[in-house]
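Cast an eye over this sequence plus tokens and explain the fold to me:
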Amino acid sequence: MPEEVSEELENFLSEVRPLAKIRWVKFGQFHITLKFLGELEPGVIARVKDSLTSLKYFSPFKINLSYIGAFPNLNSPRVIWLSGDEGAKELAQLSKKVNETLFKDEELEKDTKKFKAHLTLARLNGGSLSEELVRKLGTVKNFSWQCDELFLMRSELTTKGPIYTELL
């Protein structure tokens, strides 16, 4: 996500964050995950990097995120996310290519879950959202950019939140 779009999203979230004490994604950590790999041995990481090099660049496409949702739903959310229709098909195709490319490695599991293109905004341990928060989330505007590259990222969980490091 380009810096200027991240800043726009951050401006929106700065109005929303005070409405709930939940684990909001911090500025600079906004991303769309195509495939989560979990913990991997260094040798497997090297093979993953080699495999994904051929997919790193692709025909650019537009992403437009325009609505809020939640897993499993907004009535009992575990994850609050931002999604949209424009670019969803291309992201799903890219996710499928990543999965097929990585599935060739015996040490990696094929992802059988249906891919849902989304950008995580917050995580919850249970409970419900206030009407005020749901109403404010419903006022989200469009966040658009040209997607032209994918990255392999390491996510290190810490007590202060995840630390992301680009590997490819």
Q: What stands out?
A: The two ends are 16 Å apart (CA to CA). Helices lie at 3-16, 42-53, 88-103, 131-137. The first strand starts at residue 23 and ends at 24. The CA atoms of residues 63 and 145 lie 6 Å apart.
